[in-house]
Amino acid sequence: MTTVGLDAAGASHAFDDASKRYVPPWRNPWRRPYVLASITWAYVLWSLVPVLISIQFSFNNSRSRSSWVGFTTDWYLGTNDPNSPANGASIAQDPALLRSLENSVTLAVMTTLLTVPIGTALALGLTRWRSRASTVSNGISLFPLVTPELVLGSALFLVFNTMYSSIPLGRPAMLLGHITFSISFILVIVRSRLVSIGPEFETAAQDLGATRIQAIRTVLLPMLVPAIFASAMITFAASLDDFVVSNFLYLDAKNITVPILLYSAVKAAPSPALNALATLLLLGTLAALLVTYLVLRLRRRGDGGSALDDLADIEM
Amino acid sequence: MPNEANDSSRAPAWRPQLHRRDVLRGGAIAAVGLGAAPLLAACSSDNGSGQTASSDYPLARPDSPVTLPIFDDNKPIASGLEPENVGVLKVLNYADYMAPGVKSDFQDKYGAEVQVTPYNNYDEMLSKLNASGASFDVVFPGPSVLSRMVYGKLLQPFNNSYLSNIKNAWPEYQDPWYDRGSQYTVPYTVYTTGVAYRSDVVADPSEGYLMMWNADYAGKVGVLDDAGEALSMAMLAWDITDDINTADPEYINAAKEKLNELTGLVDVKIDITQYETIASGKFSVHQAWSGDMIAARWYLPKGETTEVLGYWVPDDGAQRVIGNDNIAIPKSSESPVLAHTFLNYMLDNTVSEKNFNWNGYQPPLDKLNAQYLIDGGYISDNLLSAVVVPEDFTKGIQFYEQPVAVQNMWLSAFMEFKSGGS
Amino acid sequence: MAVAETAEGKADRATRFLWPSLAIPGTVWLILLFVVPFYGIMAVAFSSQLDILGQPIPAWNPLQWDFTVMRQVINESISGFYRPSWEHTFVYCFLAMMICVLVGYPVAYYVARLAGRNRGLLLALILAPWWINYLTRMLAWVGLLGDKGYVNEFLGLFGVTPVDWLAGNWYVVVIALAYGYLPFFIIPLYAYLDRIDQRLIEASRDLGANSFRTFFRVTLPLSRIGLITSIVITALPMFGDYYTNTLVSNSPATTMVGNSIEQSILSGFSRAKGASLVLILSAVLLVFMAYYLILTVRSSREAR
Fold this sequence. Notes:
The structure holds three protein chains of three kinds. Chain A is mainly alpha-helical. Chain A has two domains: about 1-55, no CATH class; about 95-310, MetI-like fold (Orthogonal Bundle), CATH 1.10.3720. Chain A contains 13 helices and no strands. The two termini of chain A are about 20 Å apart. In chain A, about 45% of the residues are buried. Chain B folds into two domains: about 40-190 and about 325-370, Periplasmic binding protein-like II (D-Maltodextrin-Binding Protein, domain 2, 3-Layer(aba) Sandwich); about 190-320 and about 380-420, Periplasmic binding protein-like II (D-Maltodextrin-Binding Protein, domain 2, 3-Layer(aba) Sandwich), CATH 3.40.190.10. Chain B contains 15 helices and nine strands. In chain B, the strands form two sheets. In chain B, strands 4, 5, 6, 7, 8 and 9 form a six-stranded mixed sheet that branches. In chain B, strands 2-1-3 form a three-stranded parallel sheet. In chain B, helix 7 packs across helix 8, helix 7 (about 225-235) packs across helix 15 and helix 8 packs parallel to helix 15 (about 405-420). Chain C has two domains: about 15-65, no CATH class; about 80-305, Orthogonal Bundle (MetI-like fold). Chain C has helices at about 1-15, 20-45, 70-80, 85-115, 120-130, 135-145, 150-155, 170-195, 200-205, 210-220, 225-240, 245-250, 255-265, 270-304, and strands spanning about 50, 55. In chain C, strands 1-2 form a two-stranded antiparallel sheet. In chain C, a hairpin with a 5-residue loop joins strand 1 (about 50) and strand 2 (about 55). Chain C is globular and about 70 Å long. Chains in contact: A-B, A-C, B-C. Chains A and C meet through helix 1, helix 2, helix 4, helix 5 and helix 6 of A and helix 2, helix 4, helix 5, helix 6 and helix 8 of C.
């Protein structure tokens, strides 16, 4: 889509040529879209500035999350100063905060590692397997995408408490829940790549003497790596961010994740340690995002287009 | 309906040697009570026995005390064991109900981190305790949920040889009416329920409960997130009934209507963080437990003194809502010896004093009597109304355990209030 | 030759089950942890038995289903105490969706088609909130809207007396919902607008249509499906949202149906009622879900 930029340049030319006669701005289709531009920039500010301010307050030298007193890193690193509001309540000192961060990351990593093989296999199978059963399976596998998390969360909570009571709430139930809502992400992303690759490469490999399994392993899978990788990162981020399913299934303090802590702390008396925690969570997601971006860029090298567009497409 | 409920309080229909399965099946209370009067009527006509609202667990009252049973498959642990060395004690409790210092001292002494999973009310507590895979070592139930928990086998009986400090407790709590012989509970705190307010905002605290319905404080009024407390306040405030254990749908409904009025009148909030929100000035008036206001001094903004805090309870002791919380050990505990150790630790005079200093809730221990606490400077003069003495329990009104069906009527009404009324 | 053929035949037989066996683990997973749990909601909603703690015992056998609670919840949704929750849900979601369209469409359109040099930067900026935890973004606003927060301080500069934003105001809930879900609204729409053939728009302009005419006669009709998709994608989670409301209001005056469900199921009020509400909510959302599914299936078929 680099063409848009060119068009814009061309357009201003057209404007210059046409400007011999005065045209009021609202009649000129090629004029600069100031109104749209200001809406867009206003939206960007609206959506991001609060978050930046919230990060700022994670460095506030006071218990307040809304009036700025001064800069400190105590909420992150802890302090023994008895006069500091962060004493004992910082991420470094409050085991509950640190544990929630550990839990979030562990859960997201486990979810990703387990979901990727299941989801990729499902994508391969459903793309190539044609039968009545596959249609049913296809339908089932799309439903989690459109089911509100509240429905999934309460459904899992109810069955884990009754029929599946051998699966304890807490880490095991949360993991199963996260995998369930993640499978469809992987399925959709990997499948769209599979469809765009088409069956030709496999056929060619088989014509050259490879068995079908060899063809998949040596030809198809390598071509799928970027899509698998991107979907893994999306899964990681989705699991890290999940609140609803976790909130239904976490059971006790041992398994609390960052989003649950953020939610329950607002009902109590929140401190800047929460902002600090949210900031660390954000850094985790950004790291995942950066890695994805770099990988997509690597793949895109010499191929025009932008990795950002790929990301935007994937997130649909 | 009321008749049935009266039946149940007169003659608890329970059998001493029930098996769990029987209890569960019987507990099904015919067709789902769920608190709707028409539904209940339908049920009782279904089985024709009229026992719909009778209970499958004993309903203890001060004048009909209950000895809770010890089941064959749920016996106390053996004597003389060493606390398990698991490094963690899993506690199910209200948030901010135990002093951080008391927790860290326990960790220093016994090497176990006290890990608190918070809940907002007993229903949430029961839901957590009963969940698949739930394992907790310590829980804090009041008398109004106790029988149910014992009969549902959520709690385990004590081995009293680990609980020598029970001797520190008020005599009435060494053998309480809801648990003769203290087989399943030791006492934790005593408190009244009243109205907390900012004395720099509220003009006339003698309005009492009606402070809540005063539009002058709109946007800064809160009630406790607890069906019993919230509805009973409306009953008492508007003279609907004095019986805060009523099973009469009309009374419950009238109380609910009064609570619903709060939504339009003062934009009421429903939570249990009044110790922080009154102190910080976020709220001007909030229904509260007495301990909250004694603890609120820790949450005051810099430069403010306890002078800005106030706590109202009816002058007449017979009108006061009074209660107590206990500590118990869930059956699911994986370290019951450590749990016993913790209970005994909490009954220690020094530990209890430290805990009170932080959370503001009086422990019913002889040494820490009202005079001692006032002399110790824990309670400022303007908050003396928050002090509880043993005699209050002989006069005051308390919440008792109810059959599931009555329980559900209360809950249903409260949910209606929480859902924005109709 | 014959030997080779046999080997190939064997390989074929071995691989005949390849695709199904790849698909089966995932399918079984979703049956066990998605389809069965959904059935579990029904078993609880249609249960007629309570255990000693007052919780429903699920009726797994459809022959034992009892619809008393369901009927009661439907009645209460129409005229009883769940009615306000439903009203709030529909009104707030509708208004928030209007804001999403009015703000999100111009933004997506501008970034996709007109941003020129800034396009990469802007794209990164509108993608950013998608990656920031929803609760983090909400909490940021809770900080700003507090009694002594920046918003009141800012308004104070113009002599506006401090407003108690978080005291249970419906408009705060609506704006918060819009704020929360706009990123999810913008991205799919962006991806769709990005694909519209620029030549069609240029042609319209060259033929003398002004910007407005071009937009309403060409761009908007071309992006209709993208717009609907965005609305559906956003509406589904928004209808099931309860945390936004809790964070910025937490007042009975703004309770949404998601809050009622959470309180019924998690706080142990009545799981049977909660489960019934989930079923009703799912039925309401079925229209959206079906639309999205059909669209996905159709587009994946076209791609084949």
